[in-house]
Design goal:
binds D-phenylglycine; Galactose-bd-like_sf; 629 residues; hydrolase; Xaa-Pro dipeptidyl-peptidase C-terminal domain-containing protein; seven-stranded antiparallel β-sheet; CocE/Ser_esterase; ten-stranded mixed β-sheet
């Protein structure tokens, strides 16, 4: 008996040299509370898109939430390996799991598991896209398939996603499938030239290059650039122009780099892609909640632009909503209790997701759900730190808003106040802008890829540059009463340069009192509320650049990003002006060249910049002031 049992054990043994990598392995799924299905969904042109469907076990008549992504659908549907749907899906999806939703992630055509060609921010069918497909048709075909092939659904679909994934939500709205009942685009890329990822007012954003490498060198995720430097400030400065930097990594050979370099101005290539314009020209058929962070360091422009383009057709506030939290880019999907040094009244992102977004989706997607009490605008006011339910946005602007903005003037002696200059003193202040020593956007060493540097940079204390000789700083007296700003500050600068082109960076800053007893490290903090850059060559036309006449004062008018903030009594208002923000933005060589991407070393020249403050040339910022009641 002993011998035969030994023999049978021996027979069952695995030979030592059996290969150890499984031919096929599937973890047992009995214990999981969800089911995952991976399908290839056919589009109208035959291309199949890789789609991951995650369903709660036993789901019946469940609504679907769809995200279309260039960032790996399989990875998006797998926060961690877990038997629970809650831990498997991303943090921002936790409420959907509790509410029994079906969650779907899909790779856009050409990325990761999907067939077809990838075109970065593929334009809608029209002058730039002569094919029969775009993200609108792909969303349509996908939704059509989902409602016909998932037996557990009630046939109602919502779409949401942030950034690129927010762009694909907006694209679906261009020609929505009837089953698409609600949409939440978050921090969407809307206009890559005016103020989202690639450029701001014509100044090129250098992080675009590593992004192109990661997205377009391979179908999956590309390698980071082998820069060979710790401080990106050094590496990028040393390269010279953007095209020279791109060449260093072979990025100039990539098609999307070529497209960018061929379109430095706001020509028809950009105008036809501007999604706010495209959507504003169509009828909005799907209730849409536009979401963005007040300090969104990547796509701070698009959500407001779409909201305002669609608002024209939504006078009775039933379709078009705006939500702004005190968040970084995509911060809405993570923990929103703080940003950099700023602390809020709790997890503001969770508050929004749970108390506003979830009831909104439920209303349109869940059978029998109550009508949600969704405010037309839900905006976290900073300074006072509280959510506000508003009936529209902005609350203050130059004309046509509930309040009218008030100009704050730059004055002699680096003063700032609400009275226009009376004249008599110096006509201008000046500084030398040297492209060999551009002003850094964060303290050096600049680690562009470091999340802790990049994500909160828009709330970074500005004292690290305030005393640079090439930064002009105007500051008010301490305020005696709160100053509420609710809208987009408008820059109105009279400036000259000794060069023939120049960039103008303008910041509106809340200067904290010297002591802040409840949070001592905020003593004297210079909190940027709103800042942006404008490339001088576009002052008369965004599409047709023109050289600047050397030493001639000219008027520069442009909008800064929206703000909803109260500068409290005892705080001061500050405005800073400088001519570079490096290496986030490429340097303006300051000698006019037709295409700055190809500027030569000799084109980079020092220039003397003057900011005027006379009764005629009165440089000001129109602040979106809401009077105290
Ligand atoms: N801001 C990123 C992006 C969006 C659209 C195009 C390119 C980049 C993103 O976070 O997805």
């Amino acid at each position: 008996v002993i011998l035969s049992s030994l023999l049978s054990t021996a027979q069952a043994q695995t030979a030592p040299m059996t290969p150890d990598i499984a031919g096929k392995y599937e973890a047992p799924v009995e214990t999981a509370d969800y089911v995952k299905r991976v399908v290839m969904i056919p589009m109208r042109d035959g291309v199949k898109l890789y789609t991951v469907i995650v369903l709660p076990k036993g789901a019946k008549k469940a609504p679907i939430l769809l995200t279309r992504t260039p960032y790996n659908a399989a990875g998006r549907a797998k926060r961690s390996a877990s038997p629970t749907m809650l831990a498997t899906l991303p943090q921002g999806d936790e409420n959907f799991v509790q509410e029994g939703y079906i969650r779907v992630f899909q790779d856009v055509r050409g990325k990761y598991g999907s067939e077809g060609d990838y075109v970065m921010t593929r334009p809608l069918r029209g002058p730039l896209n002569k094919t029969k497909t775009d993200h609108a048709t792909d969303a349509w075909d996908t939704i059509d398939w989902l409602v016909k092939n998932i037996p557990e659904t009630n046939g109602k679909v919502g779409m949401l996603g942030s950034s690129y994934e927010g762009f694909t939500v907006l694209m679906a709205l261009a020609d929505p499938h009837p089953a698409l009942k609600a949409a939440v685009p978050m921090s969407p890329m809307v206009d890559g030239w005016r103020g989202d990822d690639w450029f701001h007012n014509g100044a090129f954003r250098i992080p675009t290059l590593p992004y192109i490498a990661s997205q377009t060198t391979v179908r999956g995720r590309g390698e980071p650039l082998a820069t060979g430097v710790y401080d990106d400030y050094d590496g990028i400065l040393r390269a010279g122009s953007v095209s020279a930097y791109a060449r260093q990594f072979g990025l100039d050979k990539l098609n999307y780099t070529k497209k960018l370099f061929e379109h430095p101005a706001y020509d028809s290539y950009w105008q036809h892609q501007a999604l706010d314009k495209a959507l504003g020209a169509r009828k909005l058929k799907v209730p849409t909640m536009n979401v963005v962070g007040q300090w969104d360091q990547e796509d701070i422009y698009g959500a407001y632009a779409v909201y305002s383009a669609l608002e024209q057709q939504d006078k009775d506030n039933r379709m078009n909503y705006l939500v702004v939290g005190p968040w970084r880019h995509s911060g809405v999907n993570y923990d929103g209790s703080s940003l950099g040094a700023l602390k809020f009244t709790g997890d503001t992102a969770l508050e929004f997701r749970r108390d506003v977004m979830q009831p909104f989706f439920n209303q349109y997607l869940k059978d029998g759900a109550p009508v949600a009490d969704t405010p037309p605008v839900f905006f976290y006011q900073t300074g006072t730190n509280r959510w506000q339910r508003l009936s529209g946005w902005p609350l203050s602007c130059e004309t046509g808003c509930p309040s009218t903005s008030q100009a704050v003037y730059l004055k002699e002696g680096f003063k700032l106040d609400f009275s226009a200059p009376a004249g008599g003193g110096a006509a201008y202040d000046e500084y030398v802008s040297d492209p060999a020593k551009p002003v850094p956007f964060v303290p050096r060493p600049v680690r562009m890829g470091d999340r802790d540097v990049w994500q909160p940079w828009l709330v970074r204390d500005q004292r690290f540059v305030t005393d640079r000789p090439d930064v002009l700083t105007y500051v008010s007296e301490p305020l005696k009463a709160p100053l509420q700003l609710s809208g987009a500050p408008q820059v109105d600068l009279y400036a000259s340069t000794s060069g023939t082109d120049a960039d103008w960076v303008v910041k509106v800053i809340d200067v904290y009192p010297d002591e802040v007893p409840s949070q001592p490290e905020l003593g004297g903090y210079q909190l940027p509320l709103s800042m942006d850059i404008f490339r001088g060559r576009y002052r008369n036309s965004l599409a047709s650049p023109q050289p600047v006449v050397a030493d001639k004062p000219e008027r520069y008018r442009f909008a800064l990003p929206n703000v909803n903030h109260v500068i409290l009594p005892g705080h001061r208002v500050m405005v800073q002006i400088q001519s570079s923000l490096f290496p986030l933005y490429d340097r303006n060589p300051q000698r006019y060249v037709p295409n700055i991407f190809y500027a030569q070393p000799a084109d980079y020249i020092k220039a003397t910049q003057r900011i005027y403050h006379t009764p005629e040339l009165r440089s000001a910022i129109a602040l979106p002031v809401v009077p105290n009641r």
